[in-house]
Amino acid sequence: MVHTWRPITAVIFTLSLMRTAFPLGTEFDNLNGWREVLGELKLVEGAAVLTADPTKAYGEIRSYMTLDIEQYPIIEMNCIDGDYKVYLADTHEQEGEIQYLRIGHKVGKGPARFYLKDLTPWRGRRNVVLVIQTQSSVSIDYIRFIAQGEAEAPIHKVRPIPRYVVKKSSGKIDIDGQLNELAWKRCDATPPIRLTDGHLAALSSTTAKMMWDQDHLYVAIQCADKDVFGTKENRDDNLWEEDVVGLYITIPNSPQHYVEFEVNVNNGMTDLLNIKPSQGLVNWDCRGWEAKVFVDGTSDNRSDEDVGWIIEMKIPLFAIYAQPLLPERAKEKEDQWQSRSGKRLKDPLLAFDFRPKAGEIWRANFVRIDHEKGHVEYQAWSAPIVQGFHVPERFGEILFSDEIVGIQ
Ligand SMILES: [Ca+2]
Ligand SMILES: [Ca+2]
Ligand SMILES: [Ca+2]
Ligand SMILES: [Ca+2]
After folding, report:
1. Which CATH class is domain 163-404?
2. pTM score, two decimals?
3. What is the mean pLDDT of residues 373-383?
4. Closest by Cα among 112, 43, 125, 54 to 83
């Protein structure tokens, strides 16, 4: 029987909207009959979401599985009934300028390993995708990534949830995009946040700080950025289509509801109330939210080299804890109150104090989408690991402390 190879790229594993690298030991199984599998394949421990679409031609797919080729020197596959070729492709350049590196060819069924040799010119590339070209009859049983010398590759560990201690501000904070207040100088920053898989360091560094006082949460985010990019500037624009930073906050007793604040380089501000993951009510506006952006560079010239941008903001705590979905929380409090007093209140949200207490933990995440001359990077303080940013169960923890910044 004479086989004919299908035109380039029978299957590419893609992740829509974001790039992800799969941790060592990640194994894709249940790929039998992958022709029909167009939906999601969830991997163990939430490592990633895999979407296989063998019908699509290469150029139609806009985002790809990213491989860290330093980390995965061996690709092991099992092919049930046919031949296949395996390539690496570099998609860093504009579409149409994709480079291929053929790394293996297997004829006939059975498992095979592909050793990534002579990768010198490919090292350090960050847009490497895995391309598997098959004949029409092939089924892939599994694909795994194994480190050289580690045939028994350890199952990856899910990134732990980070915690940030939010201390009290030691003085007045002017929301002017300058972090020259003593309190900011004394306030600890997060380590540079990583790509959304939680493993790869970001090209453009992002760090965040938070403080609070009786009524407000203060947030400072510092973004290194050689290509500060943004055209949008109106309230509630789709800022996530350009350079943007975001902050998600959820509160106790309301785990699936969270507020979202987005700010871009032109001081565009977008706020939403998410009633469940990715269902944001953009009409929700946070009264009293202030944000000021300082850009060290030019957001209207992409040919020069910029330094970065800073976001300083102040969020009224009331607007978060009294957001419209909180009546459940208020009802709980009111029921307790009624059982003691025998009365009911007209507006329990106003009557009870929902401010965070010292020792209380809320959930939050800082995220960033960074465009840099055609390359897009998705970053998160607490790695969502699965697709997209809207994974409230993966938000980090912010612990409200009575301690004042800079005072031990
Ligand atoms: Ca300031
Ligand atoms: Ca809004
Ligand atoms: Ca610029
Ligand atoms: Ca940028």
Report:
1. mainly beta
2. 0.62
3. 86
4. 112
